[in-house]
Amino acid sequence: MTDSPESVAWGTTGPYPAVWKVPPRNQNFTGREDLLDRLRSGIVGQVTAVVAHAPTLPQGPRALHGLGGVGKTQMAIEYAYRFRDQYDLVWWIPADQPGLVRSNLAQLAPRLGVPGSTMTSTEDAADAVIDRLRSGEPYERWLLIFDNADEPEDLQPNIPPGPGHVLITSRNHRWEGVVGTVAVDVFSREESMQFLGRRMRRSISDADAGRLAEALGDLPLALEQSAALQSETGMSPEEYLRLLNERTASLLSEGKPAEYPLSMSAAWELSVSTLQEHLPEAMELLRCCAFFGPEPIPRGVFRPVKGPVRPVMAELLADPLRLSRAIKRLGKYALVRIEAEPGEGTVTGERTIQVHRLIQALLREGLAADTQDQIRTEVHSLLAGAAPGDTGDPANWPRFDALLAHVAPTRLADSRRGDVREFALRILEYLMASGNHNVARTHVDSFLERWTADSGQQDMSVLRARRVKGDLLRFLGRYDEAYDLDTATLAAMREVAGDEHRDTLVLRNGIGADLRGRGLFVEAREHDTESVSLHQAVLGPDNARTLMAVNNLALDLGLNSDYRGARTLLEEALRAAQLSESAVSRGTVLNLWASLSRMTRLCGDYAEACDIGEEALAYGQEQLDADHPRILLTQKDLAIARLRVGEAAEALELAATVHARYVRNYGIDHPSTLGAALCLANAFRVNDLIDRAFKLAQDAMVRYPRVYGADHPYYFGCASNVAVLLRVRGDVEGARELNERVINGLRAKVGGGHHYVLTVSVNLASDLAALGELEAACRLGRDTHRQLGPLVGEQHPTTLACAANLAADLAKADHKEEADALREETMRHYRETRGMEHPDARAADEGRHLDLDFDPPPV
C-alpha cells in the first residue's frame, strides 16, 4: 500500500489500497454515521445495495420514491475513503449503462496479473478479472462499487462471489428482494444543519440552518444547491428563504409534477434565477446541457460549429475564456459535475461535464416547446461538429462511443437536417466498423422508421441507412433478405444519385457479398469485376473503397478456382494500401492482409501463409479488441494454415479459442460460428480426436442449411467433412453415399470442373478403395488428377494428395508401372515443396491415403 497525496487534501490519514479508483471525496460530507455503520457491518460477507428510501409520510411533494438526490453515491464514496485501509483493491464502476460495466471490469485486468482487453478481449479480460476476484488472488480484501445500477438481472452476471465486498447504489427498489440493502433517506434535521454549517463559507446560525433545512425538505441535493448559491452570491438565509417561498408558491400554482420533490424544484429555480441574473450565458450553457443525455458530455463538444446554434451560445462557444468561466460557475453553483481528473471514469481521456437527471428534467420542463426545439437543434449541431474523422480508425472509436451515449436521448432520429443525418450515418459506420452490430441494428431501425416517415423511400439518407441494414442482414447470415433489400436500394440509388455516386459504388460491393452468400459464385465474380472497373474509373485505383472492391473480387476469383489470380490481386492491393495507409483504414489494411494470407494458403504455400497471417494478426491486435470480427477471422485462417503446415496441436488450441469466442459473441447458428466449427472439427480430426470431430461436424451439417440453404456449396463442403469422418469411423458405405450426394449437388451448383467437386472426388476415390472397388477408385482418381493439375497447379497440395492416393490405389490394383512413375513424380514434388517431414509427405511415402477437408472462406 502507498500513501496518496489526496490524504493531505482531504484531511485524512491512513494507507491507500494498492489498487484504487474512486471519485474525489466530498469535503463537506456530513452525517450518515448510523448508515455507514450499518453498511460496514452488513457488507461483510455479502453483496449490499444502497437504495433510495421512500419514507412513510403523508402524500405530498416530499415523497422521494427512488429519485436521485438523497446522497447514495456520496455515501458510497465516503465509505470507500473511510474504510480504505481495510482493502487492498477498491474499484469504482459506473453501472448506469450496463453495456459498459464489463469494459470497466476489464480495466482491472493488468492490476490483477491477467491479460488486458488489447491482449485478449474485453469479454475475456472481464471474465478473468471476475475469476481472480473470486479466487482472492492476488488480493483477498477487495471492494467493487457499482454506482447507479438499475435492473438487478443486468448487473448480477458481473458480480463476483468471493472473499471481497460488493457495494451497489441504485434507485431501483427491486434490489431489496435480491441482496441485503441499506435504505438511504433524506438527511435528518441535525445532519442537514451540520451540512449547511460545513458547506457555507460564512457562519450560519442554528435557527437559520433549521429553517433552510425545513424549507428544503432535508434533501441533500437541494441543500447543496442552496449552500452553493448563498456562498457564491453572499445572499443571506432570510433573503434565500423569502425567494424560495415565492418560487414554491409559483411552482404550486403551475402544477409541478408530483414525482419531483418540490423542495428540489424550488431550490433549483432559485439557483437558476440568480445565475440568469449574474451570468446569463452560463444559464444558456446549462440549458444546452439539459438536452444531452444524462451521461458525461465530452468537454470538447463545446466549440464553434457550422450548424444552427442560438446566437448567445455561438458567442459563448467562440470565446474560450468566457466558456471556461461559465462552466466553472455552473460547477460552483452545484448545477453540473465537472470531472476532476482527466480520464477518470471516461472513455476518451478528456474532461467531461455531467448534469443530474433531475436537474435536466426540471430545466427542460421550464422551457416553451419552440425553445426546446431550438436547443435540441443546437445540441444536434454540437454532436455533429464533435465527430472525429475516419469511422474506421480505432483511435477515433472512444470519441464516437462517448457521443453515441447521447444519440437516443437527444432524439437525433427526429432531425431532418442533412448534416445531422450524416452524423447519424457515421455513427452507424462506426458501430459496424467496431463490430458493435447489435447496437447498430437498434439505431438503424430507429433511423429508418423515422426518416422514411419524414422523407420518403427515395431520400438519400434513407437509402444509405438501408445499405447499412443490408450489411447487417448479411452479417447475420440472412443473405436472401440482404440481397432483396440491396438490389431494391441499388435501383433507387441509381435513379436518385446515378451509377458513379460514391454510395452507389459502396452498395455494389455489398451486393457481390450477397451473391456469394447465396452460393452464386460466377454471378458474384461478374458483378464484382464490373464494380472494380467502376471504382477505378470514378475513385482511382488506390482509393480505400476501390481496394475493398478489389478484395471482394479476389474472394470471387478464389471461389471460382483461380487462387493464383486472386493472390496477385491481393498482393497489389495490399501494397497500395500500405503505401497510402494514412488514407486507408486499419480495418481495410487488415482485411487485405488477412485475405492475402488465406489466398496464399489456398495456393498451397502453407508456411508462407502462416508467416503472413501472424503478421496480419499482430497488426490488427495493435488497436482492435480481441473479439473484433476481423481479429477472429484472421485467427481462424491462421489456425487453418497452422493445421496445413503440420502444427496440429497449435492449430487445435487456436481453433478452440476462436470457436468459443464466436459462440459467445454471435451464437451457435451464426455463419462465422459455423465456419469456426468446421475449422475446429478438422483440427480435432488431425489430432486424432475423432469422436469430438464427428459430433461437431455433424452438428454443423444440420445447421448449415438453416443459414445458407440446402443447395449452397458451403453446405456440401461441410457434408464432405462429415463423410471423411464416417470413413475414419468405419462407416465406409455411408461415407461413399454422402460424398456421391455432395458431388451431384456441387456439380448442379458450381459445375463439374470446380475445385470443390474435384476435392470431394479425391475423398470419394478413397471411399471406393476402402470398399475394395479399386478399378473404380483408379478411374475416378485419374480423371480428377487430370483436371486438378491445370486448374490449381501440379505441385498444389490437393493435386499431390490426389496423386499420392492414386499411386497407392494403382499399386494395389496391379498397375505397377503407372503407380511407380506417379509415386516417384509425387514424392519429388513433396521434396521440392513441403519437405519429407511434413505429415502429408510421410503419409504419401508410406502409401496411406490422404483426406481433404473443407473450410469455408468468408463471403
Features:
859 residues; 4 domains; elongated; six-stranded parallel β-sheet; mainly alpha; Serine Threonine Protein Phosphatase 5, Tetratricopeptide repeat; disordered N terminus; 38 helices; Rossmann fold; three-stranded antiparallel β-sheet
What's the tally of helices?
A: 38
| Mean pLDDT metric | 86
Per the CATH scheme, the topology name of the largest domain is Serine Threonine Protein Phosphatase 5, Tetratricopeptide repeat
Strand order of the largest sheet: 1-3-4-5-2-6
> CATH H-level name of the largest domain... which superfamily?
Tetratricopeptide repeat domain
Cα-atom radius of gyration: 33 Å
Share of helix, binned:
55-70%
Summarize the structure in words.
The protein has 859 residues and is mainly α. The chain folds into four domains: 6-184, Rossmann fold (3-Layer(aba) Sandwich), CATH 3.40.50.300; 189-305 and 314-365, no CATH class; 390-595, Tetratricopeptide repeat domain (Serine Threonine Protein Phosphatase 5, Tetratricopeptide repeat, Alpha Horseshoe); 710-845, Tetratricopeptide repeat domain (Serine Threonine Protein Phosphatase 5, Tetratricopeptide repeat), CATH 1.25.40.
